[in-house]
């Protein structure tokens, strides 16, 4: 019997230690990295750089929040990068070709994002196409649609239109404020990023709607039998994801200052990585807003730090890959909690 | 005590095919098995009894190689073996058929391929010979006295009835000519005729010299089948008794307190106020329309075989399915729920048949599981109030005596019976007008069953109605004031418990549906 009780003590100590590592490991790694770069690189430890990093990662983080939202209902959205790219071109087209002010462009882009989300929901919830396949299809459709609308070209002020005339409009200053503006010392993209993170965290953790979203993701049939309108929540999650992706696109468009057709191309993989890292960051074992934001910050710190210490840009992907690998090991291998990320499995 | 409280000594290795000594197993800080000593002899059926959470499943996992982290020793024919995986256990002659039939069947593969599944998993020829597979599968099934046609063997295993799927997993377990066969609640999804057929098979296997471990909550089956009974409680062997079984002593060993096996209802209540009416609703396309009045103040037990229409009726009441015709009323008003949420809003709650698939949220705590149906009641302006949530959860845990460290314990860490108490308790916490429970006692031990039954009775005394659906006569007799027997979607019998005798109920229950020997 003594051996059993000894095992018991050792087991629980080990377990709480590993739970602590799972819960705080990522935060610790982020803090250590920040500390390392702050000591070795004088430029890193400036306030400007701190905000610069957050500003740089904001579109990725916001698109990641979108993927995270789709994950809460047990789904996935592969069309976030394409949606953001669509938003960039549509914003540019509305202002430059349509000669509208920034506010109109923002409205059009958000409506477009919601529509893309609704299309995903239609394919997944009504047509019952598995989420992975449905959103892959949507990705192609909206990339193609974007190219058709802009004739395959990047849209910039004073560009020559196909009829030989010069485009009437330009990127308005109110639109560019989305990237260049700041309130106090805080750049607007960072504010939007933090506000959306806080809002989503509150909705998911503290409201009945968030709880219902998680219930749908954990066991859709059990949620339905508990009286939750499963299809409604899944639809809402995809529309929310489309909206967030289009916000990411707005920030990208304001940053680039033109309707670059290739914008958003690399966003999907980063957004996926950030939301998957987010599942493990706080050891919650489920998609969550703070975790996603922290995952984005970690990647921003890494990319900036690597660049400053002179690593080539192509080392960044390797670094991201390692971070993602470690995160997934924490979520699926070391954590005792069952992790609920089930892409491609919810079809009914 | 007429039964032998002494644990079988290790020296019994001469007769024991498989013996355990000092086997312990912990999950984290939770010691589930503590120093178990047991022996299983050839040609004997040993029944393994214990309340939910007593360690039966864990013992089976250790024996079948599914959980190799045990300490202590397991010997096969006197030689110590390390059961590191199910296939190693099979090589040593230990085969197990697990409780969940669905887990043992691979949908998309044919019936024959499912019988031969271990071949597919093992080393050997890459190419399959369809003809040879069919022959091998047929001879494996012949051990069970089954003669299935090539057409059946070639069909997708997904289309098998659950009882036939059960036989497929059994045939697979027997292919390795095991020395010890472990069956974990093999009858929980079978009708009584199908169970009888299984018992015949088991008796013939016993006479062939197989050692069998049989886990069940159904004392009738054990009485009919077992040669000895081992009772587990809190991870230790409480008693090991031989025929004739002293049931009251066995129950005492199981529960740690005196309990009567047969519990007659002291008062059979007769409800008066009509709570709900089912008016001319056909449960199947070809069945006669069914009409049923559900009254408050009484517990209505609906007894029927699988396929008699129990789940169909439960689903119509709970808003999961729309009636194919006819109508429903609730408190005199038309009642036509379009989805479960409508039914819940109207005060009708449904405890579904399949707890794991339809009620449990993997990884969720008791508190969160309890509050899922009541998110609006637990929130203000959409914001959840932790206090309201935990009050409800604490009340459920206290009322139904759920055994758990706290309301933050994950439901994954609860035994089946305690999970069921959480699920039933959360619905009763809504003080429903009509509570519908579909097979609420499956895999639930007798103490938990009594607890749930007592709460249904209390609910009925407040004027609400409770309807329990089951395919087990004794469960129905134990919990019901009024008993309705369903046969093929129609009411074969309807009366109060004190006016009916068991034989009449069983007669009506089996009705024209006497056991069919042919399958599929």
List the helices and strands and how they pair.
The complex is a heterodimer of chains A (348) and B (520).
Chain A: H1 2-40, H2 47-72, H3 80-97, H4 102-126, H5 131-149, H6 173-180, E1 182-183, E2 186-187, H7 188-206, H8 208-218, H9 220-225, H10 230-256, H11 267-281, H12 289-308, H13 315-334
Antiparallel strand pairs in A: 1-2
Chain B: E1 16-27, E2 30-41, E3 45-49, H1 56-63, E4 71-76, E5 79-81, H2 86-91, E6 94-97, H3 101-104, H4 111-115, H5 117-121, H6 130-142, H7 150-154, H8 162-174, E7 180-184, H9 192-207, E8 211-215, H10 219-225, E9 228-233, E10 236-242, H11 247-255, E11 274-281, E12 290-295, E13 299-303, H12 310-318, E14 327-330, E15 333-334, H13 340-345, E16 348-351, H14 355-358, H15 366-371, E17 379-380, E18 383-384, H16 386-399, H17 416-428, E19 434-438, H18 446-461, E20 465-470, H19 473-479, E21 482-487, E22 490-496, H20 502-510
Parallel strand pairs in B: 3-8, 3-9, 6-7, 7-8, 13-20, 13-21, 16-19, 19-20
Antiparallel strand pairs in B: 1-2, 1-4, 4-5, 9-10, 11-12, 11-14, 14-15, 17-18, 21-22
């Amino acid at each position: 019997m003594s051996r059993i009780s000894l095992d018991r003590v050792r087991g629980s100590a080990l377990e709480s230690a590993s739970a602590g590592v799972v819960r705080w490991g990522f935060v610790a790694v982020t803090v250590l990295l920040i500390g390392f770069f702050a000591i070795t690189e004088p430029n890193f430890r400036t306030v400007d750089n701190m905000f610069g990093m957050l500003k740089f990662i904001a579109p990725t983080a916001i698109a990641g929040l979108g993927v995270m939202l789709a994950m809460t209902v047990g789904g996935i959205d592969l069309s976030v990068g394409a949606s953001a790219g669509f938003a960039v071109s549509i914003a540019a087209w509305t202002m430059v070709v349509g000669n509208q002010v920034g506010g109109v462009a923002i409205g059009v882009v958000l409506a477009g994002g919601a529509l893309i989300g609704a299309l995903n929901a239609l394919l997944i919830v009504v047509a019952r196409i598995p989420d992975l396949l449905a959103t892959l299809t949507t990705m192609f459709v909206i990339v193609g649609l974007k190219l058709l609308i802009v004739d395959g070209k990047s849209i910039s002020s004073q560009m020559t239109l196909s009829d030989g005339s010069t485009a009437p409009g330009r990127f308005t200053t109110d639109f560019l404020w989305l990237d260049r503006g700041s309130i106090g010392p805080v750049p607007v993209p960072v504010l939007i990023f933090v506000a959306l993170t806080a809002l989503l965290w509150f909705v998911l953790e503290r409201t009945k709607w968030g709880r219902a979203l998680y219930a749908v993701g954990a066991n859709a049939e059990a949620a339905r039998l508990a009286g939750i309108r499963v299809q409604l929540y899944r639809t809402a999650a995809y529309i929310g994801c489309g909206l967030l992706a289009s916000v990411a696109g707005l920030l990208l468009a304001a940053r680039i200052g033109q309707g670059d057709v290739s914008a958003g191309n690399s966003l999907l993989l980063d957004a996926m990585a950030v939301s998957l890292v987010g599942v493990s960051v706080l050891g919650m074992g489920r998609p969550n807003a703070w975790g996603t934001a922290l995952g984005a910050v970690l990647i921003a710190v890494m990319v900036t730090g690597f660049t400053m210490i002179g690593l080539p840009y192509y080392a960044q992907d390797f670094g991201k890959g390692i971070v993602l690998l470690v995160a997934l090991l924490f979520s699926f291998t070391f954590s005792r909690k069952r992790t609920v990320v089930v892409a491609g499995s919810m079809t009914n | 005590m007429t039964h032998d409280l002494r644990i079988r000594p290790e020296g019994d290795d001469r007769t024991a095919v498989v013996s355990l000594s000092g086997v312990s197993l912990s999950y984290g800080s939770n010691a589930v098995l503590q120093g178990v000593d047991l022996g299983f002899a050839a040609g004997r059926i040993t029944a393994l009894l214990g309340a939910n959470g007593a360690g039966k499943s864990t013992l089976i996992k250790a024996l079948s190689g599914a959980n190799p982290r045990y300490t202590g020793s397991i010997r096969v024919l006197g030689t110590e073996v390390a059961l590191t995986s199910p296939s190693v256990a099979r090589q040593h002659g230990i085969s197990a058929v697990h409780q969940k039939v669905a887990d043992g069947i691979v949908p998309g593969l044919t019936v024959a391929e499912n019988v031969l599944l271990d071949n597919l998993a093992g080393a050997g020829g890459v190419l399959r010979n369809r003809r040879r597979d069919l022959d091998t599968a047929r001879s494996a099934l012949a051990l069970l006295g089954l003669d299935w046609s090539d057409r059946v063997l070639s069909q997708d295993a997904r289309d098998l009835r659950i009882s036939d799927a059960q036989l497929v997993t059994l045939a697979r377990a027997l292919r390795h000519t095991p020395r010890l066969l472990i069956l974990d609640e093999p009858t929980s999804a079978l009708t009584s005729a199908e169970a009888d057929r299984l018992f015949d098979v088991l008796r013939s296997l016993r006479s062939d010299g197989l050692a069998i471990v049989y886990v069940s909550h159904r004392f009738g089956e054990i009485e009919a089948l077992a040669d000895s009974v081992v009772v587990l409680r809190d991870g230790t062997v409480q008693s090991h008794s031989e025929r004739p079984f002293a049931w009251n002593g066995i129950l005492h060993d199981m529960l740690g307190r005196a309990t009567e096996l047969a519990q007659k209802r002291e008062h059979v209540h007769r409800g008066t106020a009509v709570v709900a009416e089912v008016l001319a609703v056909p449960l199947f396309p070809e069945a006669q329309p069914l009409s049923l009045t559900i009254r408050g103040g009484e517990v209505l037990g609906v007894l029927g075989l699988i396929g008699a229409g129990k789940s169909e009726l439960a689903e119509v009441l709970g808003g999961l399915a729309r009636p194919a015709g006819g109508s429903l009323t609730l408190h005199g008003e038309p009642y036509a729920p379009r989805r479960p949420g409508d039914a819940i809003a109207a005060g009708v709650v449904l405890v579904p048949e399949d707890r794991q698939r339809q009620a449990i949220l993997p990884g969720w705590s008791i508190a969160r599981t309890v509050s899922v149906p009541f998110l609006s009641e637990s929130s203000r302006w959409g914001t959840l109030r932790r206090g309201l949530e935990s009050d409800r959860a604490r009340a459920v845990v206290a009322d139904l005596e759920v055994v758990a460290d706290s309301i933050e314990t994950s439901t994954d860490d609860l035994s089946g019976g305690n999970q069921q108490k959480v699920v039933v308790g959360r619905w009763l916490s809504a003080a429903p007008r009509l509570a519908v429970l579909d097979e609420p006692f499956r895999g639930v031990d007798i103490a938990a069953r009594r607890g749930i039954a007592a709460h249904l009775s209390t609910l009925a005394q407040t004027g609400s109605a409770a309807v329990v659906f089951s395919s087990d006569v004794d469960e129905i007799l134990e919990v019901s004031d009024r008993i309705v027997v369903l046969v093929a979607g129609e009411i074969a019998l309807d009366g109060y418990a004190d006016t009916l005798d068991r034989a009449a109920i069983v007669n009506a229950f089996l009705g024209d549906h006497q056991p069919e020997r042919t399958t599929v």
